[in-house]
Amino acid sequence: MLTTVFYILSAITLATAFLTILTKNPIHSAIYLVICFFSIAGHYLLFNAQFLAVVHIIVYSGAIMILLLFTIMLMNLNKEDERHKSGLTIIAAVASFCLVAFVLLAAFLKSMPIIEEYYVSGEDYQSIKVLGQVLLDEKNGFMIPFEFASVLLLVSMIGAVLLSKKEEKISL
Amino acid sequence: MDSTIIIEKGIFIVIIFAITMLMAMYSTLAERKVAAWLQDRIGPNRAGKGGILQPLADGLKLFSKEEFLPDTPNKFLFVVGPAISMSVALMTSAVIPWGDKLHLFGRDIILQATDIDVSILYIFGVLSVGVYGIMIGGWASNNKFSLMSAMRAASQMISYEVAMGLSIIALLMMEGTLSLREISANQSGMHWNVFYQPIGFIIFLVCSFAETNRTPFDLAECEAELIGGYHTEYSSMRMGFYLFAEYASMFISSTILAVLYFGGYNYPGMEWAVENWGVNPANVIGIVVLFIKICFFIFFFMWVRWTIPRFRYDQLMRLGWKILIPLAIANIVVTGVVILLFDS
């Protein structure tokens, strides 16, 4: 039964992902992306990763996509606003996509699916208690990268505040 | 999976659905009655005894009205908008513990549709998705006023979600769990969180007014500026769904307030009642107590609506970003210091 759910979810994910880049209307493509995010959250749920699924929905569907939709709705994108893209941009985009795909493929081929072992041993691998220990433990956890990520977010926040200030104030 | 569990949960979900609908229906009547009471009027009293059938009459009227579609290129999204609002408003009730447990037919029935580890985060996730119903509906209406109103509603909901999340964190630091069931159980007796987290409670209360788009934060339906708000172009039961979703989410917000800060189904002397009267009567009283708390908060929502005038938009944003968020962060810091000093 889980396999059927997986196939249905994958079909939805792939279809909406393709529709996101193929539709002409920017709002429609944003909505397709939201549906895509929801089905990815469904994939997390298939792994029984409840925290990841819920946080994915809160962050991506609930915050980022709403802000994106917001911007698109207010910007009123029309056909004539769209700048003509040069061939070089397209080649660069395709090249960078191929590089990302290469890295992902290598990662998938090398990775060891450990989840089956957890299923067999019945070990708790997804509850917030375990996740909190892994993320915030100072010695053998990911405390330092976690803090660095928050510094990165702070920097981008300061950047956004700086950008939204008036022009004459920054250009001294 | 055990088939009896599926049947049990199915029946339970249907009951919760029916109760939410009933509460939302009668909230519309209660709103008009409370408004009438506060303005020294009688209120609706023609349908049934004392106006008790008024919600049915309203529903019948909405269903029988002509469905009108505006000239919009997004007919599908126009129809989907109210559907999202309504289903999101109903989804939250899945993780709320309505009572401890009942002992029926030789088995313990847990009075909660599903007990997930991260139920508070689930509620926040569902709340954040609720903005889509308004945004999509307002945009698909192809009307500038609807779009403006949808933008207002969305920016207001996103802004207040931040303060709401921060106000919850202090509570979670005290409780050490994200499960609503455990939070309810921790508040047994009179250990209600409102006594330990009064500032967090006030911030959460203000934010839930903003999240449900109720006065004094109902700028999304500011009639003098925006005609009817995001549902200007809607008619018939589609508009009914938007209005109904507002009442359903008001009921859910009241429930969350009661569960998080006012002890949920707990009442003083519950353990004594379990020992002396048995599990079932004690828990039935618990459910009734929870519903009394919920009704009080619904009344509070209405009381505020008919007492306080609407904010101006810049005042609303200043309150959210410059007052509530720093206050919530200060509350987190104070709570952390107190926990470190006295709990370890």
TrEMBL record, chain A:
Q: Protein biosynthesis: present as a keyword of the record?
A: no
Alphabetized, the UniProt keywords read: Cell membrane, Membrane, NAD, Quinone, Transmembrane, Transmembrane helix
The record's section on Pfam families has: Oxidored_q3
Residues passing through the membrane, by range = 6-23, 30-47, 53-75, 87-109, 142-163
Give the way it sits in the membrane.
Answer: Multi-pass membrane protein
User: Which reaction does this enzyme catalyse, per its entry?
Assistant: a quinone + NADH + 5 H(+)(in) = a quinol + NAD(+) + 4 H(+)(out)
Q: Which top-rank group of organisms is this from?
A: Bacteria
Q: Which GO terms describe its cellular component?
A: plasma membrane
Q: Where is this protein found?
A: Cell membrane
EC numbers for this chain: 7.1.1.-
Q: According to its UniProt record, where is this protein mainly located?
A: membrane
InterPro entries associated with the record: NADH_UbQ/plastoQ_OxRdtase_su6, Nuo/plastoQ_OxRdtase_6_NuoJ
Could you cite one Gene Ontology molecular function of this protein? NADH dehydrogenase (ubiquinone) activity
Q: Which family does it belong to?
A: Belongs to the complex I subunit 6 family.
Q: What task does this protein carry out?
A: NDH-1 shuttles electrons from NADH, via FMN and iron-sulfur (Fe-S) centers, to quinones in the respiratory chain. Couples the redox reaction to proton translocation (for every two electrons transferred, four hydrogen ions are translocated across the cytoplasmic membrane), and thus conserves the redox energy in a proton gradient.
Q: Which PANTHER family match?
A: NADH-UBIQUINONE OXIDOREDUCTASE CHAIN 6
Name of the featured protein: NADH-quinone oxidoreductase subunit J
TrEMBL record, chain B:
| Entry EC number(s) | 7.1.1.-
Biological processes, Gene Ontology terms: aerobic respiration
Q: Is Cell membrane found in the keyword set?
A: yes
Q: Which cellular components does GO assign to this protein? A: plasma membrane
Which keywords are on file for this protein?
Cell membrane, Membrane, NAD, Quinone, Translocase, Transmembrane, Transmembrane helix, Ubiquinone
Give one Pfam family. NADHdh
Q: Primary place of residence?
A: membrane
- InterPro entries in the cross-refs: NADH_UbQ_OxRdtase_su1/FPO, NADH_UbQ_OxRdtase_su1_CS
- State the compartments where it is located: Cell membrane; Membrane
PROSITE patterns cross-referenced by the UniProt entry = COMPLEX1_ND1_1, COMPLEX1_ND1_2
Catalytic activity of the protein: a quinone + NADH + 5 H(+)(in) = a quinol + NAD(+) + 4 H(+)(out)
Show the GO MF annotations.
NADH dehydrogenase activity; oxidoreductase activity, acting on NAD(P)H, quinone or similar compound as acceptor; quinone binding
Tell me where the transmembrane regions lie.
6-26, 76-99, 119-141, 153-174, 194-210, 241-262, 282-303, 323-342
Lipid bilayer topology: Multi-pass membrane protein
To which protein family does this belong? Answer: Belongs to the complex I subunit 1 family.
Q: How does it assemble?
A: NDH-1 is composed of 14 different subunits. Subunits NuoA, H, J, K, L, M, N constitute the membrane sector of the complex.
What functional role does this protein have?
NDH-1 shuttles electrons from NADH, via FMN and iron-sulfur (Fe-S) centers, to quinones in the respiratory chain. The immediate electron acceptor for the enzyme in this species is believed to be ubiquinone. Couples the redox reaction to proton translocation (for every two electrons transferred, four hydrogen ions are translocated across the cytoplasmic membrane), and thus conserves the redox energy in a proton gradient. This subunit may bind ubiquinone.
Q: Tell me what this protein is called.
A: NADH-quinone oxidoreductase subunit H
Native organism is Flavobacterium endophyticum
Q: Which gene encodes it?
A: nuoH
